[in-house]
Amino acid sequence: MSTSDSEEDSYNERTALVASEIPSVPSYQQDPDQPQPADMEPRRRTVAPEPAAEPPSLDRSAVEREPVDLEEEEELPLKYGAKHVIMLFVPVTLCMVVVVATIKSVSFYTEKNGQQLIYTPFTEDTDTVGERLLNSVLNTIIMISVIVVMTIFLVVLYKYRCYKFIHGWLILSSLMMLFWFSFMYLGEVFKTYNLAMDYPTVAMIIWNFGVVGMICIHWKGPLQLQQAYLIAISALMALVFIKYLPEWSAWVILGAISVYDLVAVLCPKGPLRMLVETAQERNEPIFPALIYSSAMIWMVGMANPARHAEPTNQDTGSSDEEAHRSEGSALARDWVEPETQVSSGMNRSYSTEDDLDEEDRGVKLGLGDFIFYSVLVGKAAATGGDWNTTLACFVAILIVSVAVRKTKCWRRK
Amino acid sequence: MTAAVFFGCAFIAFGPAFSLFIFTIAKDPLRVIILIAGAFFWLVSLLLSSLVWFIATKATNAQDLTLQKNLLIFGSIFSVILQEVFRFAYYRLLRKANEGLAAISEEDGPPLSVREMAYVAGLGFGIMSGAFSMINTLSDSLGPGTVGMFGDSQYYFITSALMTLALTMLHTFWGVVFFEGCERKRWWVIAVVLCVHLMVFSLSLLNPFYVASILPVYAIMLLMAVWAFFSSGGSLHNITLLWTCKTRLKPI
Q1: In this structure, what DSSP letter does residue B24 have?
Q2: Crossing angle for the helix pair A247-266 and A271-281, to the nearest 10 degrees
């Protein structure tokens, strides 16, 4: 399926983007005081190469990293870990705020007109509770298998170095996200507030928004603008998921995806793990368009090739989403999920690479995680209408995401 | 009118807590994490106690209003007790984490003193408790319409905001006093905090007779403020130093 391809493409694109597009000029280095990425990242990296029988370069890098990682861990354990956690709290909170604000004001995203994605073909308009539960479980199984297939396809494509394919796919997905979905969103906002607007003005706005977004995400741009675009894309994707996933399926899918995420990243034979290891082996950074990064480091010709991975990670998320969009509105979303998950997995494994300069290393979080959390909170806001539920979900997500990251860190250690 | 009520009540209820957050907590990531974890602990305690209440209400006759009100009172008392239990649990967790941090930290001693953690944890409890009390009311106050048309009190929004503010501050002071009591192994402090919490709860039952509920709660809040101040190392000497700007106060 093309969607599967896009997923895998996104991963490949990221690496392709990194390999082909590493800028020769350091751009917009922000926040030189940023401490090294969270403790878990170094731990993850050390753990990642171990299980697989990787080529010597990988082992070397793992060995090199280990003492430094341990040192770093001992010296600056909680202080930098805390700072990294906060650096991620802010964008995650922003994304959730955007999604909740939209859900509460624009009624389009909570209207159910019976339309569903092809990934969730079973309807939830059934007579009995048992049937509804069965349908949602079946929907979840289909969705998760699509995600797994796409991820594996992506890993295969990456292994066989089909970089152009991935590259093109990522660009297509970002295009769809930045132009079509934001056009739809703008239209709905105008309808909600009853604002009259003419087509030339809308064309200008969307054109500018989209082109600047493409440039920021896939090439160079101010760090904060790039972060803002990634947050906007994640919010748009989350809104689409909230609209088109039926109620019970959405909750079961959210649960299953978190389990899959843990398994895929931590299992030695997991596709995400293999992707990361292959990328490490080739000393290539992972796709830039699917990963949110709090610091941008563009360095060429560095002794430690691992560092390249970090800046490039930023873009992979967006490309995934674009790939999805090119498939069609309903299909597009699914692609983003696996892609972002893979990217998030890869991100995590890459974040530990930087031993040399702690301060330059920001933290990375896959856009899949943004989307996942926003869908959760958005669904809570849409379902109950009760602000207490939304607030409780928000706090729980913040705490659980910290706990999950720490757990993954320790387990990979 | 509704926007004015919304903003007024929002600032009354959350203004002090928000400023405390901005000026004392936002800069330090560790404090932010402890704050959010404190909020989470309060949430969990509320969840468990609400489960108890929910089961009780579902198992009984929903039409019997007196019984339902009594069940609500019972549920709330259970919730108060559980909140204090979770405050103690959070104290134990923070102590353990602090010891771990101190052992591996490159600085001398732990990164956060117990008093800082007490304040932040108390504020976390308070913010979450206040948010849960007030947010739905605030959202309703945006309109359309207002309260007081069917004989209910027209002061509902503003008294809710005042009560929320008092409760947020009270949770902060209780946190400070509670942790200090646990540190010094003065277990009677825990009992006193629990009793004061229960007293505040029972005063709130006097609503809508607001004079009898709000004024005593604020009196209790002032007393707790004084107790927390002296318990965390403040003294009249410090206050005079502050007023006369004589010398730098020692950090707690």
Answers
A1: I
A2: 40
Beta bridge partners of residue A364, listed in sequence order: A293
Taking only the tens place, the pLDDT of each residue in A131-159 is 989 999 999 999 999 988 888 888 888 88
Res. B247 pLDDT band, cuts 50 70 90: low
Pick the catalytic residue: A261, A320, A334, A354? A261
Cα B170 to Cα B43, B126, B176, B178, B237, distances in angstroms: 17, 7, 10, 12, 24
Query: For the CA atoms of chain A, what is the radius of gyration?
Result: 20
Mean pLDDT across chain A? 70
Q: Which helix (H) or strand (E) holds A292?
A: strand A291-293
Residue B198 parent element (H or E): helix B187-204
Closest CA to B166 of B207, B136, B117, B113: B207
What Å distances lie between residue B218 and A274, A310, B7, B229, CA to CA?
61, 53, 22, 16
Task: Say whether B29 and A86 touch across the interface (CB within 8 A).
Answer: yes
**What's phi and psi for A291, nearest 5 deg?**
-130, 135
- The Cα-based distances of B126 to A253, A335, B140, B168, B170 in angstroms read 34, 42, 22, 4, 7
Which of these, B180, B176, B168, lies nearest to B217 by C-alpha position? B168
Would you call A261 a catalytic residue per the annotation? yes
A354 is catalytic: no
Closest residue of chain A to B133, computed from CA coordinates: A388
Predicted local confidence at residue A79, as pLDDT: 61
